Backbone:
């Protein structure tokens, strides 16, 4: 009797539980596909982050206009991490445990991304990277795919150093911000210098809170380097360019620039104006680069950017974030699944057709077909945003396949415009 | 890096200019926190607000320094209103938690200013252009950025004006007195709340000109205040609460130390050496360099 009562209770319990779960399971298969991320929307990286968000939201709107993915709408959530890496682990935990998102996209940049890598690996989640540099090198997560067109440090510094070597440079000064991204990059550049036979005459890391770089630039000038390679974040990049313009680097300097993040953002370029002339720096897209269909994207972006009060041109991040969506879309459509492992497998084994060209990944989830360009600013005028729409203000000087001009050296001659 | 006297001289010179800039952005806090004992953590946010107002006037072709001067009276009024609100809603009620509630109030102001600036201007950097930005005074091999000279000049001007005002005028002396003994001031027939209101107006008015200096030295973005909260409080505490000339000297000490470390020893050490110096001074003189 007691046993049959237990059975009845058990059956009732199972029925109640089943009734409770059934709609949940049904909903998770027919409700929207949830994609979540944090993005620097304020703080030092906020300008880039907001522009990147416009690109991603354009893809969400496009895919939903076509009826969604696997017949389900795409629901997109982006929290502001304030450019603060301390905020990102908490945000991604919330995305997974409270919002219960299906897919994750990383925040823009290395510094906010690095702290979430162990969490994402532990949870076995696919993570679409967002212009980070070497965040997966030590973590070795097999479901990481970076949307950036670079791979290793060589891809970033190769063009700059090759131009310097061709101009007869023998010595170099290295200046890097004391944070994850710049340090990874500077370490890569240091390794490359040894191979290239360049002698370091100045090698310093500066704290990200540095206000004025006059003293640092004066030290660099005293070291009389042939090349000045800088790995910096947006606010520092502006201060370094200004200080270099005011204090001078010395007439022997053949090239100045390298890996300065921020000089790709339109408001910063407009603000620095003619001070940019002569600088040789990395970039990902500039007018004149051949990418079919990208002009149409930028025309649509312009309208959205104006409404959102963000970077009016958006060359650096917006198309690559749209491409992130395109890669997810292709993987989901081809596999008819949103399972992280299935999608990761597809992303690893296939080439993806995107707005920024074909994309293939290596075993570490970085770009197998790198396409970082090195540009030189030329003839830039003050207070003019429109000039950056024209080819010629950022002349591509490396690599050969994309180049549309030759570098002007030394820096003193090039800075005259 | 090889040591040379020329480099050391330039390090000190750049340090003096940088120190002047630190003093310029700290003087308002020296009045509000140093003299009035108000936990004015919104000081750097108001500073950034001043910088944005300068930017706005700059788009109409007004020189940044002139814009800073034009903005001083409206910022003085803003300070009076801000203090009146703080007094009515927090200070007047007193109690053991008055200080903590005051902190909460000013943190609230910080968030409102930051979000307001984001909504109005977006998150991109904003800068101004003027003949003295991006160029330098050349004396032989030496090159001194005009924008840093401007910051130093404004710091010097503000220090002299505030020192004279606080020591030579009745209201100025009353402001100094209200920080020391409110009750005694009341017995002398002065209204401490009114005096504090004027002092807070001055602290905020000074921030308009300091905000102009901030955007002259470098572009601004809405959350830039976070970078300055530690540094401005450091200058005021190192100076000794309420000393205007002390604020200038403390700014110079921090600026020179930072510049020498950046140029001669290794850039990474600059914040550690600067804040280590603060701890050392406070260990020897807890009241600060010029505090009583």
Residues:
């Amino acid at each position: 009797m007691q046993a049959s009562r237990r059975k009845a209770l058990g059956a009732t319990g199972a029925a109640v539980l089943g009734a409770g779960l059934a709609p949940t399971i049904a909903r998770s298969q027919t409700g929207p596909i949830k994609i979540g991320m944090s993005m620097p929307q304020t703080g030092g990286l906020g300008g880039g982050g907001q522009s990147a968000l416009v690109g991603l939201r354009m893809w969400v709107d496009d895919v939903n206009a076509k009826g969604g993915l696997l017949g389900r709408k795409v629901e997109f959530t982006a929290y502001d991490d304030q450019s603060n890496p301390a905020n990102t682990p908490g945000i991604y935990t919330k995305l997974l445990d409270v919002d219960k998102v299906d897919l994750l996209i990383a925040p823009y940049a290395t510094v906010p991304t690095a702290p979430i890598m162990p969490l994402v690996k532990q949870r076995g989640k696919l993570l679409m990277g967002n212009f980070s540099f070497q965040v997966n090198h030590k973590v070795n997560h097999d479901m990481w795919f970076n949307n950036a067109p670079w791979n290793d440090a060589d891809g970033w510094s190769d063009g700059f150093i090759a131009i310097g070597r061709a101009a007869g440079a023998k010595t170099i000064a290295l200046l890097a911000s004391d944070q994850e991204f710049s340090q990874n990059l500077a370490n890569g550049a240091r390794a490359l210098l040894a191979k290239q036979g360049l002698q370091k005459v100045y090698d310093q890391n500066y704290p990200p809170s540095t206000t004025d770089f006059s003293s640092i630039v004066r030290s660099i000038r005293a070291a009389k380097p042939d090349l000045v390679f800088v790995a910096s974040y947006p606010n520092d990049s502006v201060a370094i360019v200004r200080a270099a313009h005011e204090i001078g680097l010395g007439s022997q300097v053949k090239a100045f620039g390298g890996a300065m993040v921020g000089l790709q953002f339109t408001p910063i370029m407009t603000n620095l104006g003619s001070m940019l002339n002569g600088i040789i720096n990395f970039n990902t897209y500039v007018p004149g680069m051949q990418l079919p269909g990208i002009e149409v994207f930028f025309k649509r972006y312009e309208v959205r950017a104006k409404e959102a009060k963000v970077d009016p041109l958006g060359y650096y991040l917006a198309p690559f974030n749209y491409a992130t969506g395109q890669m997810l879309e292709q993987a989901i459509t081809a596999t008819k699944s949103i399972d992280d492992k299935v999608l990761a497998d597809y992303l690893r084994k296939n080439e993806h057709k995107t707005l920024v060209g074909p994309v293939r990944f290596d075993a570490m989830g970085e770009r197998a077909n790198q396409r970082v360009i090195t540009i030189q600013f030329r003839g830039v005028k003050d207070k003019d945003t429109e000039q950056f729409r024209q080819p010629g203000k950022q002349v591509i000087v490396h690599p050969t396949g994309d180049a549309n001009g030759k570098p002007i050296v030394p820096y003193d001659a090039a800075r005259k415009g | 890096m090889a040591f040379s006297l020329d480099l050391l001289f330039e390090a000190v010179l750049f340090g003096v200019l940088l120190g002047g800039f630190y003093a310029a952005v700290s003087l308002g806090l020296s009045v509000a926190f140093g003299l009035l004992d108000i936990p004015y953590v919104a000081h750097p946010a108001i500073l950034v607000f001043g910088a944005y107002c300068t930017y706005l006037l700059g788009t109409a072709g007004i020189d940044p320094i002139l814009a800073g001067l034009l903005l001083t009276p409206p910022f003085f009024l803003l300070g009076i209103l801000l203090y009146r609100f703080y007094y009515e809603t927090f200070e007047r009620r007193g109690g053991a938690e008055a200080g903590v509630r005051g902190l909460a109030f000013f943190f609230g102001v910080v968030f409102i200013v930051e979000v307001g600036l984001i909504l109005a201007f977006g998150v991109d950097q904003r800068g101004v252009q003027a003949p003295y930005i991006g160029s330098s005074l050349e004396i032989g091999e030496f090159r001194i950025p005009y924008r840093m000279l401007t910051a130093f000049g404004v710091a010097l001007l503000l220090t002299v004006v505030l020192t004279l005002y606080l020591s030579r005028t009745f209201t100025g002396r009353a402001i100094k007195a209200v920080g020391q003994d409110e009750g005694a001031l009341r017995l002398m027939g002065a209204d401490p709340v009114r005096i504090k209101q004027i002092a807070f107006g001055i602290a905020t008015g000074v921030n308009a000109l300091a905000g102009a200096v901030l955007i002259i030295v470098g572009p601004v973005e809405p959350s830039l205040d976070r970078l300055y909260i530690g540094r401005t409080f450091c200058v005021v505490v190192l100076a000794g609460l309420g000393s205007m000339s002390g604020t200038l000297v403390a700014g110079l000490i921090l600026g020179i130390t930072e510049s020498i470390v950046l140029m001669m020893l290794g850039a990474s050490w600059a914040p550690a050496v600067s804040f280590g110096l603060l701890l050392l001074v406070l260990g020897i003189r807890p009241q600060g360099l010029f505090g009583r």
